Amino acid sequence: MLPLRVMAAVDEDARIKRIASTIRVIPNFPKPGIMFQDITTLLLDPTAFRDTVDMFVERYRDKRISVVAGVEARGFIFGPPIALAIGAKFVPLRKPKKLPGEVISEEYTLEYGTDTMEMHVGAVQSNDRALVIDDLIATGGTLCAAINLIERVGAEVVECGCVIELTDLKGREKLGNRPLFVLVKGT
Amino acid sequence: MSAWKNREHDPRIEGIASSMRVISNFPKPGFKFKDITTLLLDPKAFKNTVDLFVERYAGKDISVVAGVEARGFIFGPPIALAIGAKFVPLRKPKKLPGFVISEKYVLEYGSDCLEMHIEAVQPGERALVVDDLVATGGTLCAAINLLGMCFRNIYFQQTMHVNMLPHVENKDVIIRCKLFHRFCFLVFVSS
């Protein structure tokens, strides 16, 4: 009989292997040379999807998280189940002009040009402890914009959580000292 | 907003209805936009919303929950996870990376398009379509038609009754369909 902590590690490893195996890579999308990490096939496997959410929930349930912020659009798929399970608010971070109320905006750099991310005024309070959730971290630009929006209202970003990290693009470094937790590392 | 009068009064509905807000003149002058983001800020109301759907659909052999981008991505996945179904995102054009089928639908001004990955659903599956709101029904009809392209006869016994004109197997054909609201499961109806 293996010690409980070893059994837990073995189980975690099995779940991560399953999750990783359900993600498919689509070459040359959205542009030539890019290997796109497609999580839609993960969502077609109810066990893998359940395991993905469970691994985040297990990590965060005792960390007094009051807000889960999800980045449009794939962060909307993973964020809400986590928020529901840990009893936190869910806050959508959206492209411009989608949110109907008063917003604060953060501009961020893309490979070519810039984009803007918005959050409703009043959604996050200064005493909130927040998670930022997205399906993937690449360069880290999007996550940094999300972190900035939350910190601008005085709240604390406890951690960023992503299903996939593209390690070559060094997004982790761009986040600086903000913790990042990922399930699967890809190149 | 008023609760759905024909349904048995569920005490959770008042809390859900009151947690939403109406924003005037968004996205255009004269519109009254029903904003669900304030519901999402109320963990109890959000949980009750999901629970109402899960209670209705659990154990009904539903293997697919299809959610319409983007607010359908918020409500669909928790329902899918709870009932053990696949989640299939229905997206605006050029977002899905694999092979897709697409469906055009009519807006007040112009048209838009919804896409689904071609291998996401199989013939014989029982599907649920989830979105935050139904207005004219154009988006939901497009979603239903996308799912219907994958198999010849669809029966949405639990969710909606659809009256469709015969159509050609051409993905760019605009298909008109009417939703009969009395067969839709709506948490509540707004006046």
UniProtKB/TrEMBL annotation, chain A:
Residues 54-165 form the Phosphoribosyltransferase domain. It comes from the Eukaryota. Its EC number is 2.4.2.7. Pathway: Purine metabolism; AMP biosynthesis via salvage pathway; AMP from adenine: step 1/1. It is found in: Cytoplasm. It catalyses: AMP + diphosphate = 5-phospho-alpha-D-ribose 1-diphosphate + adenine. GO terms for molecular function: glycosyltransferase activity. It is an enzyme of class 2 (transferase). The keyword Glycosyltransferase applies. Homodimer. HAMAP family: Aden_phosphoribosyltr. Belongs to the purine/pyrimidine phosphoribosyltransferase family. This is adenine phosphoribosyltransferase.
UniProtKB/TrEMBL annotation, chain B:
Keywords: Cytoplasm, Glycosyltransferase, Purine salvage, Transferase. Pfam families: Pribosyltran (PF00156). Its EC number is 2.4.2.7. It catalyses: AMP + diphosphate = 5-phospho-alpha-D-ribose 1-diphosphate + adenine. Residues 58-148 form the Phosphoribosyltransferase domain. GO terms for molecular function: glycosyltransferase activity. It comes from the Eukaryota. Pathway: Purine metabolism; AMP biosynthesis via salvage pathway; AMP from adenine: step 1/1. Gene3D superfamilies: 3.40.50.2020. It is an enzyme of class 2 (transferase). It is found in: Cytoplasm. Belongs to the purine/pyrimidine phosphoribosyltransferase family. Homodimer. HAMAP family: Aden_phosphoribosyltr (MF_00004). This is adenine phosphoribosyltransferase. It comes from Platanthera guangdongensis. The lineage of its organism: Eukaryota, Viridiplantae, Streptophyta, Embryophyta, Tracheophyta.
